[in-house]
Design a protein that fits this description.
The protein is mostly helical and 226 residues long. The protein is built from ten helices and three strands; from the N terminus they run E-E-E-H-H-H-H-H-H-H-H-H-H. Helix 5 crosses helix 7, helix 6 packs across helix 7 and helix 6 runs antiparallel to helix 10. The N terminus is likely disordered. It is a multi-pass membrane protein. Belongs to the YIP1 family.
C-alpha cells in the first residue's frame, strides 16, 4: 500500500507530500513524478519486467549448435569403416543444418582460385543435388527425409577437403593427381552412400549410388576448375 504524510510549515502552507511505497514490509520513498503517474493511471510505465531465463541462453544453444555432435559426425564421415566402432547412423538419423553448411562453405572457400562464382555454384549444387538424391530415393522406396540427405551430402564433402592440400602438392604429377582425385571421390561417395543406401533398396542400390558418385565428381570439378 502507499503511505502519504504531509507537513505544515510556519506560514501555513502544506509541503510536498512524502510518498512511501510498502513492498514486503519495507518502505521505499517515491518521487512526486512517480506519484503523479500512478494517480493518473500510468503506473504501468514504471513497471520493470523480470529477466526471462530463456533470454539468457548461450548463443550456440540459441542457434541449436552442438559442437560435440558436429565433431562426432565429422569423425563418422572421415572414418566410414564399421570396424572403427562409430555409430555412423547418427549422421542420418539426427540431421543438423549448421555442420553441413560449415563444411560446404569451407569447401567453397578452398575452391575459389580467383573464380568467385564457384561459391554460389557449390551451395546451389549442394541444395539441389541433395534434392535430386532425395526424390530419387523416395521413388525407389527409401524412407529418408530431405534434411537427412542434405546433412549426409554436406558432411561427406569432408574427404574432398582432406585431399585438397595434397592436390596442391602433387598437381604437377598428372597420374598421381588423378589417382588422388579418384580416391577422394570414392571416399566421399562411399561415405554418403553407406548412410543413405539402406537395405530397403535391395537390388536398386546402383540406381542411387551412381548419381551420388556423379554428384561428388561435379563437386570436385568445381574445386579444380575443370
Amino acid at each position: 500500500y502507499i503511505s502519504l504524510s504531509f507537513s505544515l510549515d510556519l506560514s501555513g502552507s502544506i509541503t510536498t507530500p512524502d510518498v512511501k511505497l510498502n513492498l514486503g514490509g519495507e518502505f521505499i520513498k517515491e518521487s512526486t513524478a512517480t506519484t503523479f503517474l500512478r494517480q493518473r493511471g500510468y503506473g504501468w510505465l514504471l513497471e520493470v519486467e523480470d529477466d526471462d531465463p530463456e533470454d539468457n541462453k548461450p548463443l550456440l544453444e540459441e542457434l541449436d549448435i552442438d559442437l560435440k555432435d558436429i565433431y562426432y559426425k565429422i569423425r563418422c564421415v572421415l572414418m566410414p569403416m564399421p570396424s572403427l566402432g562409430f555409430n555412423r547412423q547418427v549422421v542420418r538419423d539426427n540431421p543438423d543444418f549448421w555442420g553441413p553448411l560449415a563444411v560446404v562453405l569451407f569447401f567453397s572457400m578452398i575452391s575459389l582460385y580467383g573464380q568467385f562464382k564457384v561459391v554460389s555454384w557449390i551451395i546451389t549444387i549442394w541444395i539441389f543435388g541433395s534434392l535430386t538424391i532425395f526424390l530419387l530415393a523416395r521413388v525407389l522406396g527409401g524412407e529418408v527425409a530431405y534434411g537427412q540427405v542434405l546433412g549426409v551430402i554436406g558432411y561427406s564433402l569432408l574427404p574432398l577437403i582432406v585431399i585438397a592440400p595434397v592436390l596442391l602438392v602433387v598437381g604437377s604429377f598428372e597420374v598421381v593427381s588423378t589417382l588422388i582425385k579418384l580416391f577422394g571421390v570414392f571416399w566421399a561417395a562411399y561415405s554418403a552412400a553407406s548412410l543413405l543406401v539402406g537395405e530397403e533398396f535391395k537390388t536398386k542400390k546402383p540406381l542411387l549410388i551412381y548419381p551420388i558418385f556423379l554428384l561428388y565428381i561435379y563437386f570436385l570439378s568445381l574445386y579444380t576448375g575443370v
